[in-house]
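Bench log, entry 3. Co-assembly request; chain sequences pasted below exactly as received.
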Amino acid sequence: MTARTQAVPAREAVAARLRRGAGDPRGTVLQALLLASLLIALGVLVVLLADVVTRAAPTFVERGADVITAPLSARPARAGMLQGIIGSLLLMVFVIAIAFPLGIGAAVYLEEYARDRGSTRFIRTNVRNLAGVPSIVYGLLGLAVFVTLLGMGRSAIAGGLTLAVLVLPIAVITTSEALRAVPASIREAAFGVGATRWETIRSHVLPYATPGILTGTILSLGRAFGETAPLIMVGAVVGTFNGVDPVAMLTGSYTSLPTLVYNWSREPQEDFRALTAAAIVVLLVVIGLVNATAIYLRNRYDRRW
Amino acid sequence: MLRCMKPIDAPEEPFVTHPARISKRTLLSAALSGVLTLAACTSGNGGTSTPAGSDGGLNGEIIVSGSSTVEPITSIVLEDFAAANPDVTYEVDGPGTGDGFALFCDGLTDVSDASRAITDEEVATCETNGVDFVQLKVGIDGLSVITAVDNTDVTCLSFGDLYALIGPESQGFDTWDAANDLASELGSDFGETHAPYPAAPLEITGPGEESGTFDSFVELVMADPAEARGAHETTRPDYQASADDNVIIENVSGSDSSLGWVGFAFADENAERVKLLAVDGGDGCVAPTPETIASNEYPISRDLYIYVNVDNAAANPALAAFVDYYLSDAGIAAVTEADYVALDAAALEETRAAWEGR
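Structure output for the full assembly:
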């Protein structure tokens, strides 16, 4: 009986809380503040996007796809972003081919094989630190190691390797997190039926970690796509050149979309400012697509247990 | 040249588990390499043909660096030249005259754009490295002293005024009227002073020390007053320096009592956002216009050059043909297209003779 008589006021109190009754002024203030921070964050974003899109719109209307398919030019009326797009895609191939396998491999070793010793923790901490190092520092590293020491010169190979190294720690961290989110019971079940460590990883841990790994690595790809400073450091052309052959870019002149945005924003002619906005829009669309792919893949492979 | 049939393969994911998944991943990498190939294939329609000097059949690589002021001219010339000679590849950028000479004298570039003449020190570096070059004057640029459009207090400044406002002794002057006394002292020696100035904040934006525009401003405007007063030939250190000319325009147009200087092309392009001040170099106020700059009436103008590596030009017919085209009537028209001031006939002949006599 006592239990029931106490339960009634408790239930009412819960109901009142859920109705968000007037009895909680501090809660209301907090809620307003939180909403304000959301609106400010969104507002800034909307203003930025609207500004760029309105500046870019006339260019797209006037020239259509030509802005994207035309090569670089000193004349704003003819200039396009072809080399920038090819260059950026080329650099992404390096990131996918080098940073992803290495990053995933390193994370699997750290999480599944390495014993939890001081040295492992030391490595783990430092991988995290590396992920926070400013990108320009990776540019300096790329300049010293790839461009000069290994003699690759100012080529897309050097640029691609620099970006791959830049993204590597992020790939390791996100993969580690995804692996850690796999419940221990899954591994124990596999070991319990006599699976070896590799069999456990291959057929149990990795399939369950796939959505997390894909999301993390693809988002890091988006980060690499938007990088400018390290590329300028390792010699992406901040100017014009006429080669459009991706194979020639591997060892010769190349540029990327963000570098192009930087270069065009420095030009004197008013028309280049519209082109700058157009290039920013293309850059945002590509990064948006990359992120959408990440979300799609996560949902596609997401499984519950 | 283009390999449309052979995409660069995207890597396969290392951990493949379920058959259903394989196809998805293969799809993903196929899509990536597909996009790349597509991008490569669309490049076929690249060369918009503009008739340019020499006939086709040339091939080779032309690498240009140097002044960001001259870069637009050289870019236009190279673009037209490469359109007529599709097998010629080129690269041109504009990190600044000084950086350009550093690369040039290391033998890393074929042509160096310059908004000032090469210094003795740079010549020595070139000599040490065995880089033999020829200097070719291609155009003229006026330096424009600018302020906000709404600034009605100032229309003309003399060299003395500029020294009082921007020179080394003006450090700490954060309002225009703080420079009144100094300007009066310099008075008639360096052009009639336009002090007293308004009691408004003095907000200066100009190019940084790495820029040829900075060097030229110091050399043309600051040198004489500084020498007369025993001061260092430089500007005040406490101004907003930017390597980006658009930032300078932005800052100057953003405040009613601003002051700054940039190349004439940038100022003229943005004439509705900034006011181009007339300058008195001792012979009265002259406003910067293409005519006054070409005739040397406007006191702060500078010559624009290209420096060509002579040995590379001998070894690379494409480079020689490019410079030939640069100095032809069709090529040199790029100077006016890029908004600079063309050389007069005599000066152009002199440049052509220098190139022939290399």
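Chain B touches chain A through 51 residues (CB under 8 Å). DSSP finds 15 helices and twelve strands in chain B.
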